[in-house]
Design a protein that fits this description.
Helix content: 40-55%
InterPro entries: BUG, Bug_dom1
Number of strands: 10
Radius of gyration: 25 Å
Structural class: alpha/beta
Biased composition (Low complexity): 25-38
Signal peptide: 1-21
Pfam family, one: TctC
Largest sheet: 10 strands, mixed
Number of domains: 2
Protein name: Tripartite tricarboxylate transporter substrate binding protein
CATH architecture of the largest domain: 3-Layer(aba) Sandwich
Shape: globular
Oligomer: single chain
Order of helices and strands: HEHEHEHEHEHEHEHEEHHEH
């Protein structure tokens, strides 16, 4: 009787140990995926250099973001493959998007921001945010409205009063296409100031020559991003009439720039930027890049560059970024309808 009981106990113990081992292996197998802990899978890593597309000319916001992220990634060796930044200007971003769409795969990324919503809405691209894979949101930047150092306009209200008198008398340049970000951020601001925005004279410099045109006296106002304005403001070559941040910014030079709200104009505009990939990108590759970007944003090297440009961290996971883009699309669609630019 004793032997039978001992044998039965031993069998039960063995079964329990086997089940425990199976459960442990199953749990261990799941830990390699992009699960609740947010860690990227080890199943995929880049096998060759990564092409980072800036869908505009050198010097603009997309280019600055792409080159800064690439630089920090290589400095910190978070990604051990080269991140080669390639400029693909044209169509307000559409040329670059078409390139990424055709290229496909897991080794091509591109910097994105509001034009991925604006440009399809104004009919200049058949490709939009739903045609690509969101990877991560990275920063919140702001627009800046800039004039040359010898301009008669000293603040945003000076400019708005002149535009109210004759909207066609002042030329406004931006590096984006008509109906895209540089155009719409200016439209939104002066509309809040009471200007007839349907009569504005907007010049599109999609080769990234907006600042050169301003400094060369070919246009009166440059609608751009904060980073692009800050360098020339430090050099004393331009005056920043206003920025679109919701509140004053901290930091060298940028703390001197007045917001629209500080000047009695009830408006703000956030220039978010992030990264996307081709529509067919493998989920494991998305998880890898998502995790790499998150890790990069925690480094001292990134924080130094971020503060230098006056950016704010605005990290979003792939899933959060997708939800954000869908919501922003609805908001921008309403704005484009309001000013009569939606196609």
């Amino acid at each position: 009787m004793f032997n039978k009981r001992s044998l039965l106990f031993s069998l039960v113990l063995v079964i329990a140990l086997v089940l425990s081992a199976c459960g442990s292996n199953q749990s261990s197998g799941n830990s390699g995926n992009n699960g609740n802990d947010g860690q990227a899978t080890d199943d995929w890593k880049p096998e060759k250099p990564i092409e980072v597309i800036a869908p505009a000319g050198a010097g603009g916001g997309w280019d600055t973001t792409a080159r800064t992220v690439s630089k920090v990634m290589e400095q910190t060796n978070i990604i051990d493959k080269r991140l080669a930044v390639v400029n693909k200007p044209g169509g307000g971003g559409a040329v670059g998007w078409a390139y990424v769409d055709k290229k496909g795969g897991n080794h091509t990324l591109f910097v994105t921001s509001p034009p991925i919503l604006f440009v399809p809405l104004n009919g200049q691209s058949d490709l939009g945010h739903n045609d690509f894979t969101p990877i991560a949101g990275v920063i919140a930047d702001y627009a800046a409205f800039v004039v040359s150092a010898d301009s008669p306009y000293n603040n945003m209200n000076d400019l708005i009063e002149a535009l109210k008198e004759d909207p066609q008398s002042i030329s406004v340049v931006g590096d984006s296409a008509p109906g895209s970000m540089d155009h719409m951020q200016f439209v939104k601001a002066v509309k809040a100031g009471g200007v007839d925005v349907k009569r504005l004279k907007y010049v599109s410099a999609q080769d990234g020559s907006g600042m050169s045109m301003l400094l060369g006296g070919k246009v009166d106002v440059y609608s751009t991003g904060l980073a692009e304005a800050t360098e020339q403001a430090r050099a004393g070559k331009v005056k920043v009439l206003a920025i679109t941040a919701p509140e004053p910014l901290e930091g060298e030079t940028v703390s001197e720039f007045k917001t629209l709200k500080e000047q009695g104009i009830d408006d703000q505009f956030v220039v978010w930027r992030g990264f996307m990939g081709p529509k067919d990108m493998d989920p494991e590759a998305v998880a890898y890049y998502e995790n790499a970007i998150k890790e990069m944003m925690e480094t001292d090297e990134w924080k130094e560059q971020r503060d230098n440009f006056g950016w704010n961290d605005n990290y979003m996971s792939s899933e959060e970024f997708k939800k954000f883009l869908d919501e922003e699309y609805k908001t921008m669609e309403e704005l484009m309808n309001e000013v009569g630019l939606k196609k």
